[in-house]
């Protein structure tokens, strides 16, 4: 027996996780969702550590970069923005001092991987858990839940219960 939600969609308890419930399962899931990234950035901005997620995203982007010239430009950009001692959004990672200007001349897709992993773990074990308790996350979760229990959803549920309670 398949119960429909009145719109003709089967109502399934195995809906794929989306939104906040997906974000809450792992930092990876959060970072795969543009909306999640937006909210996480909002949160990190308040904590003055937005550069961590920006650096992580820049590294992801860098890995997809094609062509030596573009890679050199991107690598330099990442270096000057996040890693140099004069960086405007400096991230706090070990080993960044060993990243010299010379490595930027011969970039390769995974050159920032170790630093990216450090930042990922920093976010995962530090800011991510605080994010899940933050107002930004909880308010977003609440508004999602309100959308799910909107009048249309409720009337569909009532219709369904009327049908089966005869």
Automatic annotation (TrEMBL):
GO biological process: regulation of G protein-coupled receptor signaling pathway
GO molecular function, one term: G-protein alpha-subunit binding
UniProt keywords, alphabetically: GTPase activation
Pfam families, A to Z: RGS (PF00615)
SMART domains: RGS (SM00315)
Any Gene Ontology CC annotation: cytoplasm
Coiled coil: none
Residue ranges of every copy of the RGS domain listed in the record: 26-137
Entry-linked InterPro entries: RGS, RGS10/12/14-like, RGS10_RGS, RGS_sf, RGS_subdom1/3, RGS_subdomain_2
Gene3D superfamilies: 1.10.196.10, Regulator of G-protein Signalling 4, domain 2 (1.10.167.10)
Annotated region described as Disordered, given as residue ranges: 142-166
Organism domain of life: Eukaryota
The protein's name: RGS10 protein
Classification lineage: Eukaryota, Metazoa, Chordata, Craniata, Vertebrata
Gene name of the record: Rgs10
């Amino acid at each position: 027996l398949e119960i429909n939600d009145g719109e003709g969609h089967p109502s399934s308890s195995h809906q794929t996780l989306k939104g906040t419930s997906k974000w809450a399962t792992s930092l990876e899931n959060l970072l795969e969702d543009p909306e999640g990234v937006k909210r996480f950035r909002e949160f990190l901005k308040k904590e003055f550590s937005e550069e961590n997620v920006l650096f992580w995203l820049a590294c992801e982007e860098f890995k997809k970069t094609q062509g030596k010239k573009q890679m050199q430009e991107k690598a330099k950009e990442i270096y000057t923005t996040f890693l140099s001692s004069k960086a405007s959004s400096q991230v706090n990672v070990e080993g960044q001092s060993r990243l010299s200007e010379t490595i930027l001349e011969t970039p390769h897709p995974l050159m920032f991987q170790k630093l990216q992993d450090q930042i990922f773990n920093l976010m995962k074990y530090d800011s991510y858990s605080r994010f899940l308790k933050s107002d930004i996350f909880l308010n977003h979760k609440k508004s999602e839940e309100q959308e799910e229990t909107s009048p249309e959803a409720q009337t569909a549920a009532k219709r369904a219960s009327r049908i089966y309670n005869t």
